[in-house]
Each structure stands twice: as structure tokens, then as C-alpha cells.
Write a structure and sequence with these properties.
The protein has about 675 residues and is α/β, with parallel strands linked by helices. It is about 40% helix and about 20% strand. Among the domains are: about 100 residues, Nucleic acid-binding proteins (OB fold (Dihydrolipoamide Acetyltransferase, E2P), Beta Barrel), CATH 2.40.50.140; about 200 residues, 3-Layer(aba) Sandwich (Rossmann fold), CATH 3.40.50.300; about 160 residues, 3-Layer(aba) Sandwich (Rossmann fold). Helix 7 packs across helix 8 and helix 9 packs antiparallel against helix 11. The protein is globular, with a radius of gyration of 28 Å.
Length: about 675
């Protein structure tokens, strides 16, 4: 069996199962091998009911205290059972498993295992496993069982069975990291790591396997970036430029003054664009720090030097907002701004293609539609990508290939600590806009529990009465039997019932069709919708200046960087804005994390504190949505490994680095594709 073989070669996987695996991105043996466990289950000795606590996974040995009761709530069949032992009683709940009524007998002792929660004032174990035979349970003691990310039709048991087949039959490849690096950094053998990550002897072995595989991802990523940087450093620019008066005039005519940080970064951009080498610069600035005006100035400089310039953003709504603001800001100058997004009609797209090709368009604003084959530029000298964390390195490179080594400016509002940014964006020079405009009022924050919700609703009503708007964020789209968290669809109905009927309330989520999403977002931007209930689909830089309230339900379920991005959707206008973080758990750790956001609006401080709080020991921490995503490495929790891997990659001489890519030609594309953010 080889890495590139289809998974259909694995015993027990047929055509139907193959199609289901494809839904989670698994097509080859290598894909399966790199589908790493999200956690491990460790079975301990049963404990008395009196000792179980909220949030813990526990095993109890108990018997039924009363006859099981089955009730129906909408599409759910809920089975409630009270069990007892000599120390106390505990409520067990199963969803859509009515057959258990016939399997469980009064007076018989069973082993139950599951997560303990707190509901309606009592401890409850939901959807626990039942061990009818004690021997089956005791065999599992002290064995780590992998728990994999799943989809409907794929069970954990099937993945474990398939993984055993692969481990027994695969011809493992030679290690591509030089032996001296493995020795110097005390790395586990790669083949052993690939086996131990799935079926570890113990937690310490699993930790070492995971460290090795995360090191590999970061090492190869650093090598690929080094290669890209070297090729750019040697490239003289094809588009010589000089400073132009129109940029100074635009700055003088702004209704505000640039901050010192903006002035400093604009100076760096000008130096880059007028030098003999092509610019490759990242602007990292907090939400609302004023990066967009710097992009406008760079676009204007390129265009007034006789070239074309483009800016690629991750959503159509944002592209249209930029298009309108650029047209307004540059209306008195002799230049043409063109919009290109996926929802345009074929006729509109063809007209845009022609304008771009014949240089009748100077500034082109769009989504990933800008990198389609049909788009031909005439003298594309500047490429800007906004919200870099939503694009990957490969997409940035694709847009660059539309010009002859154009100047590149990348903008990101993701608060990544500078020490990590230098490594992750190793192919770019970094500028930081670390000052907010004086005209911006600081957002007022509060962390509350669910009892505060009625008060929050009244507050939103008052804001709407003043002519303002609000976002309410829920972690889920629909109700889940297994996860107790607010969902967009049910919550929208709940908030409609709690608020006066004249308040317009709509919902938005990622499963909606793009056209439908754009329509909702545009209506919100126009003020037709007063309250928007949404998933995190709104986190990308949409600018609705009239929105003054951001309320996040189950805030403990989000990473701090993501919560900070969400908070950045308000506070963009002249009015005071507010952010309400609703914590759905009594956990002190969760509340401590949210207090970081409560005390500060500084994204870089929040990123540093988040890193300290979670630390490298948090092996399976929450992945920050939108960041560079590796299959096993996490740039926050594995920051120390990232730094070591980058150091190791830097220590290779050119011949050693080239040898790795020569012997493994697939690696560069693989690692850059894998570490791309999602659109």
C-alpha cells in the first residue's frame, strides 16, 4: 500500500463509504493517515456518584432508581433515567434512543460513562455509554482511545479499524528532515510518530509524536517561505515608480489627520514602491486602525505612475463597500475603478474583463474572482490582499502571477503576536499600525451570564430606538442533540418574541446560498434590518458604521482572537459602541479568559495574553478561526515548536534545502495549500 493509493484499497471501505470520506477531505491513504485524532479517551476506575462534578467525564457503577421515562419534544425523543449508588443519585439523558427502555432493567447494576453537565439546577450525564458487561469496560482501563473528527456516515470505530489496516500494510516513506536536525532537536522518528499519534502507548508518547508532526509542518512551511522570499529578494521591480503629488493632496483633504503609526507605515510603503526591488509588505493593524486609507494611497500611487492596481478581499459585501468608498474618495481624480465579483451576470463580467484587459480600468476591486483565468491585466503593478488570514499563500501567489512580479501589499487585522508574525509571514516585511485614530470612541465591554439576557434585549431595543443597529452572534446554525449552545434559527425566533414587532430581525449563517447571504448583509448595511442574528460569518471586515451593539452568546466557545474580530464589527462610526459577552458556563477558566477582552480593546495585547493563558501545554485547544490552519500544528498553542522549526529551517544551507524539495517535489505545494486560510 502506498501513500497516494485511493482509500478504496483499504479493507472495509467500499464506494459508498469512499464518497462519505470525501466529505471530510479524505481521498488517499495519506489523507487518512493525516486525519489526526482531535482528542483521546482515557478510561479510569468508576467513581461514586457523590464525587462527579460539572464538566468532568466520569464513569459510575449504578442501578435504576425509578422506571425510565420517555417524552417527546418536537422531533426529539428524550429518555430520562435516574440512577443511584450508595452515595447518591444522578440523572441520565439519552436523545432519540427509545430502545434503551427495553434494554435497561430495574435493580441491575450497569457502568455508565459520559460528560457531566448542569441543567435546570441539577447535575446530568447526557448520552452516556452503557457497559452491560463490566469485563468489557475493565479491558479499556489505561488504554488511550483516539477520537476523530467525524461526519454523518463515518463512525469513530470505522476510522480506527481503517487506521489499523493502513498501519499494518503501508510502506512508510523515508524521513525528509535531515538526521542532524532530528538529533539536534530530539525529534521522534517520523514513522513512529505517525503510528503513535493514532495509537499511543501513553500520553507522554502521544505528546512527543504530536510535537514531531507539528514540527514537520512548521519546518516545511518555513522552508517554502524562505524559498519564496529568496526568489523575490533577487527580483528587481518591473514597475519603477516615483512619489506623486496626488497622494499628498488626498491626505491633506481627508476630514481627519493620519495617526503617527499611519504616517510611519505610509513612509515605508512609499520607500518600497520607489525602490529598485518589488515591495512585499504585510500591514498588521488592529480592527479599526485605519489600514484601508493606506491601501487607497498605495493604489493611487501605482495608478498615477501609469499602471493598474488591484485589491482582493474575501467577501462580496466587503468588495462592494470598498468599491463605493474608493469611487467616492477618488471621484475628483482622473481614474477608473472597476468591480469584479462572482455574483455579477455574465454580461457584467465580460464588460469588466474587457475594461481590465484594455486598461480602461485603473483600480480593480474584487473577491477571488480576480484570479480567474479569464482575467487579463495590462501592466498590473500593485496587488493588495485585504484580510490576509482569509486567503492562503497560494491565492496571494496566484494574484501575483497576473502581473510581472508586481509590488505586493498584504493587510491583516488578525492579532498575531509579533514574534509569531515574523515567522508566519517570513516572505514579507512587516509594518504594524499600533495606534487607533483619536476620533474612535473605545468600545465598552461587559461579561455576563445568561440571566442578563432580558436586560441586554432592553438595551438593544433602546439602541434601535436611537436609530442604531445590533449584531447577535450564536455558535451554531441549528439545534444539536449533543451540544448545548445557542443556535441562529431558534434564537432568532426567541428574540423576535422578546422584542417589539416593529424591530426588524433577520438571521444569517454560512449554510445559506451566497446570493441570499449578500442580500441580507446589504440590507443590514442599508439599515433595513435592525438586529442581525448570525454565526461568525460576519467576522470579516464588513463596515456598518451604524451598528453599535455586538452581543455574543456562548462566548466561551470562541477563541479570543475571533471574539476580538467580532467586536471589531462595531465601534466603526461616531456613536458609542458596546460589546456584551454572554458566558454560558460557570467555569472560572472560561470567565477568566473573557475578562481579558473585558479589560482591553487592544488586539495585540489580547493575542499575547491568550497565548500565555492557553500555553503550549493545551494540546487540543480551540483553533482560532481564520488563522493559518495546519493539520496538527496550532500557531498559538505550539508557538514554541513553531519558533524551533523556523530556526531549524533557517540553519539549512541552500543545498540542503534544495535537496529536500528535489527529493520530495510534492512537499512545497502540499504545505502551502494545507496552511492556507479558508475563503
Amino acid at each position: 500500500m502506498d501513500y497516494n493509493d485511493s482509500i478504496i484499497k483499504i479493507k472495509g471501505i467500499g464506494e459508498k463509504t469512499q464518497k462519505t470520506f470525501r466529505k471530510i477531505g479524505i481521498e488517499t491513504v495519506q489523507d487518512l493517515l493525516e486525519h489526526y485524532p482531535r482528542d483521546y479517551e482515557e478510561f479510569g476506575m468508576p467513581m461514586p456518584i457523590a464525587q462527579v462534578s460539572e464538566g468532568s467525564v466520569a464513569t459510575i457503577e449504578a442501578y435504576l432508581g425509578i422506571t425510565p421515562r420517555l417524552k417527546r419534544v418536537r422531533h426529539l425523543q428524550i429518555l430520562n433515567v435516574q440512577v443511584r449508588d450508595s452515595s447518591g443519585t444522578l440523572l441520565l439523558t439519552w436523545f432519540n434512543m427509545p430502545f434503551l427502555m427495553n434494554r435497561l432493567s430495574m435493580g441491575t447494576r450497569y457502568l455508565f460513562r459520559g460528560k457531566v453537565g448542569f441543567k435546570n439546577g441539577v447535575l446530568v450525564m447526557e448520552q452516556p455509554q452503557i457497559f452491560f458487561n463490566k469485563e468489557d469496560y475493565y479491558k479499556l482501563l489505561k488504554v488511550l482511545q483516539p477520537i476523530y473528527p467525524l461526519t454523518e456516515g463515518i463512525s469513530n470505530k470505522l476510522i480506527i479499524k481503517s487506521m489499523h489496516e493502513v498501519h499494518n500494510n503501508l510502506k512508510f516513506a523515508k524521513d525528509y528532515i535531515p538526521r542532524r536536525i532530528c538529533r539536534e532537536y530530539s525529534l521522534m522518528d517520523r514513522t513512529k510518530a505517525l503510528k503513535e499519534i493514532h495509537f499511543p502507548k501513553d500520553r507522554n508518547t502521544m505528546k512527543k509524536a504530536r510535537e514531531r508532526l507539528a514540527f514537520d509542518e512548521f519546518f516545511l512551511y518555513s522552508l517554502a517561505l524562505r524559498r519564496m522570499r529568496d526568489s523575490k529578494t533577487l527580483s528587481p521591480t518591473e514597475y519603477p515608480m516615483k512619489e506623486i503629488k496626488e497622494c499628498d493632496d488626498l491626505i491633506d483633504n481627508l476630514p481627519y489627520s493620519l495617526t503617527k503609526a499611519q504616517q510611519l507605515v505610509w513612509g515605508e510603503i512609499k520607500r518600497d514602491m520607489t525602490s529598485e526591488l518589488a515591495m512585499n509588505r504585510l500591514i498588521q493593524g488592529d480592527v479599526g486602525s485605519g489600514k484601508t486609507i493606506l491601501a487607497v494611497l498605495a493604489l493611487l500611487m501605482a495608478v498615477k505612475n501609469g499602471y493598474q492596481a488591484s485589491i482582493m478581499v474575501p467577501t462580496e459585501v466587503l468588495a462592494k463597500q470598498h468599491y463605493k468608498s474608493f469611487c467616492s474618495m477618488l471621484s475628483e481624480l482622473d481614474l477608473s475603478v472597476c468591480l469584479l465579483v462572482g455574483s455579477m451576470t455574465a454580461k457584467e463580467k465580460n464588460e469588466a474583463y474587457e475594461r481590465i484587459r484594455e486598461h480602461k480600468a485603473d483600480i480593480i476591486v474584487g473577491t477571488h474572482a480576480l484570479i480567474q483565468e479569464k482575467v487579463e491585466y495590462d501592466n498590473l503593478a500593485l496587488v493588495i490582499t485585504d484580510e490576509q488570514h482569509r486567503f492562503g499563500v497560494k491565492q496571494r501567489e496566484e494574484l501575483m502571477t497576473k502581473g510581472k512580479k508586481p509590488h505586493v501589499l498584504v493587510m491583516s487585522a488578525t492579532p498575531i503576536p509579533r514574534t509569531l508574525a515574523i515567522i508566519l509571514y517570513g516572505d514579507l516585511d512587516i509594518s504594524i499600525v499600533d495606534e487607533l485614530p483619536a476620533r474612535r470612541l473605545p468600545i465598552k465591554n461587559c461579561v455576563v451570564n445568561t440571566n442578563y439576557r432580558p436586560t441586554a434585549y432592553r438595551f438593544i431595543e433602546n439602541q434601535v430606538a436611537l436609530g442604531r443597529q445590533a449584531y447577535v452572534i450564536c455558535p451554531m446554525v441549528e439545534e444539536s442533540e449533543m451540544i448545548e449552545a445557542e443556535n441562529v434559527i431558534d434564537y432568532t425566533q426567541q428574540i423576535k418574541e422578546a422584542m417589539p414587532s416593529h424591530i426588524s430581525i433577520e438571521y444569517l449563517h454560512g449554510k445559506m446560498r451566497p446570493k441570499e447571504k449578500n442580500n441580507i448583509m446589504e440590507r443590514f448595511a442599508e439599515g433595513e434590518i435592525h438586529v442581525l442574528v448570525s454565526t461568525t460569518v460576519v467576522e470579516v471586515g464588513v463596515n456598518v458604521q451604524n451598528a453599535t451593539v455586538m452581543m455574543v452568546e456562548n462566548a466561551e466557545r470562541f477563541g479570543l482572537a475571533q471574539l476580538h474580530q467580532l467586536r471589531g464589527r462595531v465601534g466603526r462610526g461616531e456613536h458609542q459602541s458596546y460589546c456584551i459577552f454572554v458566558c454560558g458556563t460557570r467555569s472560572k477558566e472560561a470567565k477568566d479568559r473573557l475578562e481579558i477582552l473585558n479589560k482591553s480593546n487592544d488586539g495585540f495585547y489580547i493575542a499575547e495574553e491568550d497565548l500565555k493563558l492557553r500555553g503550549p501545554g493545551d494540546l487540543f485547544g480551540i483553533r482560532q478561526s481564520g488563522d493559518l490552519e495546519f493539520k496538527i500544528g496550532n500557531i498559538y498553542t505550539d508557538a514554541s515548536i513553531l519558533k524551533l522549526a523556523a530556526q531549524a529551517a533557517k540553519s539549512l544551507d541552500d543545498d540542503e534545502a534544495e535537496k529536500i524539495f528535489m527529493e520530495n517535489p510534492h512537499l512545497e505545494d502540499k504545505i502551502l495549500n494545507q496552511s492556507s486560510g479558508t475563503l
